[in-house]
């Protein structure tokens, strides 16, 4: 294991640490340089630490301190998983403050992008810049259907002996299928000290939170003054791509990137392009 003085450059080798705050032991991993504003990764439905694409993490950690963590009640973090995005955002703020970070950049994927939107509105002084991918605003079109789509694709995956993410994150074209297989292989690169999978109860709580987010009244996003990079694939089934365009149009300072022949996991399919864009955006 690396000592705290060593700079970890690979997510595959980043030790899992814990920090206690608000009655929760949060499991997290960090890597990259120790200076500058850190990028805190906010993860997707059912995800634990091992679900981040190491190419995306390592690519951003080449220039920035990157911190990924398990939400309350998920993976190796203790506590009970909340049933609202707002409570998850409060937990994320508790975690960030427990690490003594006065200012962060946020990278939120899918459910993490919803959490990021709440954080930047409730704690604007904490956030410098925002990157959100595969996500949508509160009350966005089709977001309330995530449970149905997730259940359907889980059954499809069981029947075909595949990972549900092959269907949920990627298109069914030859490019999409290949990208999905490559992504799933990358998630297995870490061999030691892997995280615990999400418990069924925590997964159900997250589904309820996303469903509620989809039923909310649209929020006024005009007060978000931070620069926001908004990304997705052009064929997102989980959070329909129209939400991504809607989100970008309602943010005062946003940049939109849509990847072709890509689904919910477009940033993983186009990881090299996404990392390049993210680094350029963060450096501005």
Task: Please give a structural write-up.
There is one protein chain. The mean pLDDT is 96. The protein has one domain: Rossmann fold. Strands 1-2-4-3-5-6-7-8 form an eight-stranded mixed beta sheet, sandwiched between helices. It is globular and about 45 Å long. It has helices at 54-61, 85-98, 111-122, 146-160, 164-168, 174-186, 200-215, 241-250, 266-269, 271-283, and strands at 17-21, 24-31, 39-42, 66-69, 104-109, 127-133, 228-233, 254-259. The chain contains ten helices and eight strands. β7, α8 and β8 form a beta-alpha-beta unit.
In short:
The protein has one domain (11-283): Alpha/Beta hydrolase fold, catalytic domain (Rossmann fold, 3-Layer(aba) Sandwich). The radius of gyration is 17 Å and the shape is globular. It contains ten helices and eight strands.
Total number of domains: 1
Binned, the helix content reads 25-40%
Unreliable segments (pLDDT under 50, ≥5 consecutive)?
A: none
Q: How many angstroms separate the termini?
A: 34 Å
Shape: globular
CATH level-two architecture? 3-Layer(aba) Sandwich
User: Can you tell me the CATH topology?
Assistant: Rossmann fold
Largest sheet: 8 strands, mixed
Please write the string of helix (H) and strand (E) elements.
Answer: EEEHEHEHEHHHHEHEHH
**Backbone CA Rg:** 17 Å
**pLDDT averaged residue by residue:** 96
What quaternary form is this?
Answer: single chain
Quote the beta fraction: 15-25%
- SS content category: alpha/beta
Keywords: Hydrolase
InterPro entries: AB_hydrolase, AB_hydrolase_1, AB_hydrolase_fold
GO molecular function: hydrolase activity
Protein name: Alpha/beta hydrolase
